[in-house]
Amino acid sequence: MKSLLAVACAGVLLSAPAYAALQAGSRAPDFSALASIGGKEFKFALADALKKGPVVLYFYPAAFTPGCTIEAHNFADAMGDFQKLGATVIGVSHDPIEKLDRFSLTECRSKFPVAADADGKIMRNYDAVQDPRAEYAERVSYVIAPDGKVIYSYTAGDPTHHVEYTMAAVKKYVTGHH
After folding, report:
1. Is residue 46 in some structural domain?
2. Best CA proximity match to 61, nearest among 136, 156, 158
3. Cα torsion angle, 163, 169, 170, 172, sign
4. Measured between alpha carbons, how far is 100 from 97 in angstroms, rounded to an integer?
5. The dihedral formed by the CA atoms of 8, 126, 104 and 33, expressed in degrees to the nearest 10
6. Where residue 30 sits, what CATH number does that domain have?
7. What does the pLDDT read at residue 21?
């Protein structure tokens, strides 16, 4: 009976609309993934990035789609400011690394890396899966403090404010810790 109840509850959870479930104060799940910057592949590890400062982790549905291109351009334009604050930016999608090699070069303008979440595990761990299309990430942005805690999360299909809001959260964190 317990397993039947668990299955029923899981079904309810899976059918609920996807919102950023990792709220401020949550522990950010550690991950590493194959990523690309300027068309060059490397292994991105969250733990290593957090040693340098806060991390802006943003999920986007698919490379080369209109909203994702806008968001990539916005993050590329803001990279100088993120770097001055000591923040790392990483975009994550379900796209294959070969597609991200091109996307990192053209739309990300070689300014920041994008990682391939081939099996969707990172998206699931961050509750950033589109419902009902599990192969696509929800447009969710997180700011993670160096201690591994989520300090900000924002979910919106419209890419317009993700850079602005994550930048504000990083600034607030940095000014509060210096």
Report:
1. yes
2. 136
3. positive
4. 5
5. -90
6. 3.40.30.10
7. 65
Residue 17 has pLDDT above 90, yes or no: no
* Active-site residue flag, 68: yes
Q: Compute the distance between CA of residue 60 and CA of residue 112 in angstroms, rounded to an integer.
A: 14
Catalytic residue among 18, 20, 68, 170: 68
Q: Is 176 exposed, middle or buried (0-12, 13-18, 19+ CB in 10 A)?
A: exposed
What does the alpha-carbon distance between residue 117 and residue 104 come to, in Å, rounded to a whole number? 15
> pLDDT digits over 30-53, tens only?
999 999 999 999 999 999 999 999
Q: How confident is the model at residue 129 (pLDDT cuts 50, 70, 90)?
A: confident
Does the residue 2 lie in any domain?
A: no
Residue 103: give the domain boundaries.
19-176
**Rounded to whole angstroms, how far apart are CA atoms 143 and 58?**
9
* Cα 33 from Cα 16, distance rounded (Å): 28
